[in-house]
Amino acid sequence: MLRENRYIVGCTVHDIQPTLPQRAIPPTIERTGLFGGEGSCPLRIAVLSDIHANLEALEAVLEHLAPKRPDALWFLGDAVGYGGDPEPVVDWLRQIDPNHVVRGNHDKVVAGIEEPEGFSAIARDAALRTREMVSADGLAFLATLPQGPSTPKERFGICHGSWADEDYYIFYPDDAADMFDVMKGSVAFFGHTHRATVYANFEGATLEIPIQSGYPIILQKAARYVINPGSVGQPRDRDPRASYAMFDTESLQLAFFRVSYDIASAQQKIVKAGLPEINAARLSEGR
Ligand SMILES: [Fe+2]
Asked: What SS3 class is residue 202?
């Protein structure tokens, strides 16, 4: 059994999917607040990825995670590209421990480290327009973002695309199996696909683990895991809400959260900035 779903006493009621049967929720939930109580936070690391210059989504996520009192924040790349607020997102990223950050493919191109060869026309146009929107100082900072993979804590890694290639997409269990072959440690987080996912590797088999926002799972010590927290600023799993994860390296508890934000405002900024308008439309569709 690779997965153990359980309700954790104290979960804030708005973290619970309203479609789930209310009778399944322990009565203590409404009284205490899952991650919000003083000293009660069992998940200590906030994991964010693919903000893509969406300041509204980032601010909503930061407000949502603040009561959970994380000890650290790990960021998996793509701070910029697509969205209308690249400079404020770059400024926010300056506060994050660089040992807890890896760069994304859009960060590389916007910084001028690479040209957008291999990008779609939409991604290329957005990246080149974003270059014009970011200050010289901001571009210089983007160029300093570390190439993954990285190991912010022993046995726990981060990368943008995959462990072997920061530009590679992990869409399927076979892709994850390739990553398990080369990654160091027992748990690694990746981004790039903009889809919240967990893959587990146990006794040679790799499979995808079902997840649900607000319902923590407990990772098993006998297995290894690669985990995508989803995208803060441009989700592509048909849920337009911003996505992030919380993880506790001691208890191995992992939880995903979806957060509503002011999509209309983010869309208006994309159009006003002269970025490809498809990037505005897709935000409300989550794809
Ligand atoms: Fe991305």
From this structure: strand
